[in-house]
Amino acid sequence: MIRLSGLRKVYGSRGREVVALDGVDLHVREGEVFGVLGRSGAGKSTLLRCVNLLERPTAGTVHVDGREMTSLSSGELRLARQGIGMIHQHFALLSSRTVAGNVAFPLEVMGVPAAERDRRVAELLDLVELGDKAGAYPAQLSGGQKQRVGIARALAGRPKVLLSDEATSALDPQTTASILGLLRRLNRELGLTVLLITHEMNVVKSVCDSAAIMREGRIVESGELPALIATPGSELTRELFPLPEAAPGMVTITFVGQADEPVVSELVRKFDVDVNIIGGSLETIGGRPMGRLRVELTGGGSADALAYLRDRGLLVDVEGAA
């Protein structure tokens, strides 16, 4: 659905070049929620704005829904952007317009007739659970309600792709959870492909199917969450499941979907080993329990115990092993 190839963006600043994107390749599959994680200045917002060409890349190509955005004329680009909704960190609502007026604005720009426009606005406000706020003004809304209006407005043109620019970073944790739940519901009910940027690991953990980590304008890691979690040395996995530092010989067991099984007690019973638990971390990601456990194994059956874990489909990494 979204494919970025060799994307590079360079800004001129006080006589020197600033590289915001440095050869970014990224693939977001149709119907998934994809999170781009990184600190401030990593290039996340620039990347997002290149997807709908609010920023035109210095080099590289952007494909959305089979079209090469970077090759479109200005008129073609205006039409293509109707298939790409965008929600913003600070809502970007028009203070002089009501909730209904804000949602109607892109429909007015598209030339949608008034009666059809009114029907669509009512439908969208019901979708984001704000049907009773149509006549309210932004100043009368909470932060979460403002973001729901922003989401409804972004969906006005029935887009296939929704871009989210730090949409929850200005919200409290409870409201953040509510907005993320709404995005996931819209993703499933409408078949939306969602590309979101964030600096919060909890956002990735709560709602994303796939993720990438950005640093200094580059993608340093990317993939589906279960696959990344099962990859030895994954930076994302270390962030999601922090563990105490490993000493030589310690064993790290990574669970992807088997975290509710009595693995440790089975090892003790089957292989006559002692298991000393050094640390562990368990999360529910995409509705599946996932986690990591760091242990010390002692006893004559340790090698057989490790083989048993691997046969069960668990990722087993022994510190210091070749």
Our estimate of the beta-strand percent is: 25-35%
Oligomer: single chain
Report the span from N to C terminus.
Answer: 40 Å
- CA-based shape: elongated
CATH topology of the largest domain: Rossmann fold
**Count of DSSP helices?**
11
The CATH superfamily name of the largest domain is: P-loop containing nucleotide triphosphate hydrolases
Mean pLDDT: 91
Rg on CA atoms, Å = 23 Å
- Low-pLDDT runs of 5+ residues are none
Give the biggest sheet: 6 strands, mixed
The number of E-state strands comes to 14
The topology string of helices and strands comes to EEEHEEHEHHHEHEHEEHHEHEEHE
Q: Find the structural class using helix and strand composition.
A: alpha/beta
- Work out the helicity level: 25-40%
- Spatial strand arrangement across the major sheet: 6-7-8-3-9-10
Give the tally of structural domains.
2
Q: Tell me, what is the CATH class of the largest domain?
A: Alpha Beta
Instruction: Provide the CATH architecture of the largest domain.
Output: 3-Layer(aba) Sandwich
Description:
GO terms for molecular function: ATP binding; ATP hydrolysis activity. InterPro entries: AAA+_ATPase, ABC_transporter-like_ATP-bd, ABC_transporter-like_CS, ACT-like_dom_sf, MetN_ABC, MetN_ABC_transporter-like, NIL_domain, P-loop_NTPase. Keywords: Amino-acid transport, ATP-binding, Cell membrane, Membrane, Nucleotide-binding, Translocase, Transport. One of its GO terms (cellular component) is plasma membrane. The protein has 322 residues and is α/β, with parallel strands linked by helices. The protein has two domains: 2-227, Rossmann fold (3-Layer(aba) Sandwich), CATH 3.40.50.300; 241-318, ACT domain (Alpha-Beta Plaits). Helix content is 34%, strand content 31%. The chain has helices at residues 44-51, 74-81, 99-110, 114-127, 143-154, 173-190, 201-207, 225-229, 235-240, 263-271, 302-311; strands spanning 2-13, 16-28, 33-37, 59-64, 67-68, 84-87, 161-165, 193-198, 210-215, 218-224, 251-256, 274-285, 288-298, 315-318. The strands form three sheets. A six-stranded mixed β-sheet has the order 6-7-8-3-9-10, with helices on both faces. The chain has a four-stranded antiparallel β-sheet with strand order 2-1-4-5, with helices on one face. The longest helix has 18 residues, at 173-190. The mean pLDDT is 91.
